[in-house]
Give the backbone structure.
Amino acid sequence: MCLAVPAKIIEMDKQIATVEVGGLSRQASTVLLPDAAIGDYVLIHAGFAISLLDEEQALETIRLFDEMTGGMASGGA
């Protein structure tokens, strides 16, 4: 099973974004989303940002992940 995870872009260096996922920072390629910018929410899959999300949609998805994982998706216990 494959899973894409919503993340917020917090830094950009050309086509490499630093994204925040569950309180952790990771790097992801934005080559598939050339218009992605700092502050955008994106879906991350296999190290690539594959889709832009609006903030409401991203936060709802994160909330649902938290509900399924007992808070681990957002960095909780």
Q: What stands out?
A: The longest helix spans residues 55-69. The chain has one helix and five strands. The helical segments are 55-69.
